[in-house]
Amino acid sequence: MSNVFEIAGDVSVFGFRAVTSLFRRPFEGEQIQRQLAEIGSKSLPLVIASGFALGAVLTLHTRSTLVTFGATAWIPTVQALAFFLEIGPLVTGLLVAGRVGSGIGAVLSNMRATEQIDAIESLSIDSFKFLVVPRIVACTLALPLLTLFLDFSGLLGGFLSEYASSRLSFRLYISRSFASFEWSNFYAPTLKTAVFGFIIGTISSFLGYKTNEGAQGVGRAATTSVVASSLLIILVDVFLIKFIFFIFPESAL
Amino acid sequence: MENRNASIGLFVIGGLLLFGIGMFVVGDRHQAFAHHTEYYSEFVNLAGLAKGAKVRVAGMDAGQVLAIAVPNSPSSRFRVKWRIDARLRGLVRSDSIVTIGTEGIVGGTYLSVRPGSAQAVEAEALASIPSQEPTELADLLARGNGLLGDADGMLKTVGGKLSVALDGITTTVSNANDVVVNLKRGHGTAGMLLSDDELANHIRRTVTTATTDVQDIVADLKAGRGPAGMILRDEALASRIRETINNAQQATADLGHASRQADALVSDLNSRRIPTKAAELMDSLNDSARQVRQISAEMNKPDRFGMSPGVNIRESLTNANTATANLADATEALKHNFLTRGFFKRRGYYNLSEISPDQYRKDRAFTDPQNHRVWLSGPELFQSGSNGEELSAKGIALLNAALTENGDPIVESPVVIEGYWNGDAPADQLRRSRSRAMLVREYLQARFQLDPRNVGIVPLKNAPPKGMQRATWDGICIVVVRRG
Q1: What gap in Å lies between CA B357 and CA B464, rounded to an integer?
Q2: Are A41 and B11 within 8 A, CB to CB?
Q3: pLDDT digits (tens, 9 = 90+) for A92-147
């Protein structure tokens, strides 16, 4: 049990160090761009495809249920609220955690195992600021944007699914989608994924940066990064939702 | 490097673009980029209305609820601040009504603004718009439940009646089906009418004949032939009918006048207390009748010997008859006594009822030429009436002249009216001559108040006494007997 608290304390310090390092020179813009491309751009196909498929599937399920109550007009509304409020942020976080978290953990642990980090340090380069901070910043910045891509691709998939069933016009679909939207329903869930990105970057970087167990450690760091990030995202999501409800009570449905 | 930057640029720009779209769409829903006008309304019950809820003006999404001020006492109300698109401001008038609506059973609540009247002034910004308290869904459900209960009971009642009605309809349809089948088979009178060609031809000929007859009748009517044609064409008849109608109207008016006079008479009788006096008279009559009954009862009492009044009266009448018979015998004896018969011969003692026509014709007292006689013929005196012969007006005038001609002596002298009828049958002669004499005697007694003891009649058939210079006579003869 004491080990759990120790790890939690180490991760917290690690994260706090990353935040404080962000505002110190050098800012490592090049590395941030590199990681942003790696984490954001390269995740787009996965996120868009997943969102589109999820949107189509969710509409099919929602339709079969709402038709029973004669509430088919509510399909766009339910679809948009479900994606923007929860499905988009959570699925994006889990997808990125799976794709990016494992990569960060594997890369950093491998660099640690192959003493590349030590080599960087020997060049008087702050390895933490050079390797960890850009990844955490990139995750934090990329997650909200990826979430928007997943939300809108899910909306598109839902529209196409609904159009195939009822020939509903796109204009009316969009109008009904945002009919019950509050401001807090849009930007609060979207921005909370920045927290997810911070968690993914921090956990994955911590596990990869601190692991020094050779090839076996690389694999465990990759796996642990995905598991820990995903679990923490879901747990933190609960608290974030309650926090959002507290700040924006009108967003509580 | 360039590819990496491009992908980063695409990623970032795409993400920001989506964010902008989301902001725009949600902002459009909240009309974040439009001009707004804010108002207030107050409610006792918010019915779940929350900040950010929609505001609909005439059913159109127009804005949202901005704030809800909580009351500080039960007497106060929730003060709701809401705003709408300024373009819809013209619909909100001083008499607009704000209510809280519900978007169906699963929907949320919203603020509904009913447009005001065109005559009312436009509501100023930040004005307080009149509100109407919402109806709770629970109340509606309770009412709906009650209605369903009533409907269920009614359906059961109606169902029972419908079942009976359906049975009746089924029976009726079955009967109708049987009738149609029988009609098709030509059974019964109606079936025969439908299927019998010979009958149809006969009916057709009959109708043709009847049509021809009707045409003839119409032609006769137009030509004025027959009573109906005369009624239709005769102007003189029409004028007489018109005159008759006028007479009827006049008669109706007279009747109305008579009715009014009768009303006046009744009113006059009432004013003179005639009914009251009649009632008093009836009372007096009743008293008299009671007294008569008492007297009668007294008279009907038996005498001191125990004999009833009827027996006493019968005995008295018997005694009187005996005495009268004895007196008649005594008188008859006096007539033949030599001391007194001269008196009777001078005075006369005839009783016409005891004298036959033949004795009358021979008696000198009646055949004395000194007697005054008036001969009146039957055709002048009599005319045929509903009960046989009766005196005519001319005959009455002749009788009056004959009696007046004799003057005062006729009042004191005996008068004999001789009746004659010159018919063939002897029985009729006696009957008709007596009937004529009786008619004349009744008139003379009533007209001249003659003493009945001095007026006698004698039917002499058609033969007058001798010496009258008439072998037969038809009529009467009034004889005023001269006193000796």
Answers
A1: 10
A2: yes
A3: 999 999 999 889 989 988 888 888 888 988 888 888 888 899 999 999 999 999 99
Mark yes or no for CB contact A151/B19 under 8 Å: no
Domain that holds residue A74: 28-251
**Structural tokens at position B437:** 């004499």
DSSP letter assigned to residue B372: E
Residues of chain B whose beta carbon is less than 8 angstroms from a beta carbon of chain A are 4-5, 7-8, 10-12, 14-16, 18-19, 21-23, 25-30, 50-52, 106, 108
| Within-domain flag for A10 | no
Quick check: is A9 in a domain? no
Distance CA A215, CA A219 (A): 7
Residue B416 backbone phi and psi in degrees, to 5:
-115, 130
Nearest CA distance, B85 vs chain A (angstrom)? 16
More confident position, B146 or A92: A92
Q: Are B448 and B411 in contact (CB under 8 A)?
A: yes
Which two three-digit tokens encode residue B306?
A: 């125990």
Is this prediction's ipTM beyond 0.95? Answer: no
Q: DSSP assignment, residue B478? A: E
- Chain B residues in contact with A185 by the CB 8 A cut-off are 26
Place of tokens 């009747």: B255
Is residue A6 included in any domain, yes or no?
Answer: no
Residue B7 to residue A145, Cβ atoms within 8 A: no
**Domain count for chain A:** 1
Mutation for testing the B interface, residue in A186, A248, A253 having most B CBs under 10 Å: A186
Among candidates B7, B23, B106 on the partner chain, residue whose Cβ is nearest the Cβ of A41 = B7
Q: Do A37 and B50 touch (CB under 8 A)?
A: no
B394: Cα separation from own chain's centroid: 51
Is residue A78 in some structural domain?
yes
